[in-house]
Amino acid sequence: MSNPDPRLQLRPEVVTQPTSQPTEAFMHETLRPILKLQNAHFLLITRHFLAKRKVRLETLSAAQRLQQISHSIARDNRLRGLLFGCVLGQFTETELAFYLDNESEVNRRITHLLVERIQTQMEVLLLPV
To answer: Across 9-82, where does the E strand assignment appear?
Structure first.
């Protein structure tokens, strides 16, 4: 009998709708709680990344800010790697095996969730460093 993974105990509970699709279930049962748990890290990493890249969000329009966040997370491999590392590091062995079997679809979902999460908290990114 194996002990439950302690990472599971750290995750906040997220209320979601039941689904029969395995990747959707993975998103709701695994990804959303991890993203909620790691939210502060995502914001700090993104703020630091944008400052290092000399991206001044305060000079951009609201639409340009959203586009900049989306583009940075989806296209910049360094930022994407840091954010994905925060997510993947929280996977149990079983979750990691599912991820490896469904990597493309799960990566798409992680990217979408990260973009959505960070864009909805734009005010945190606009705070003075």
So the answer is: none
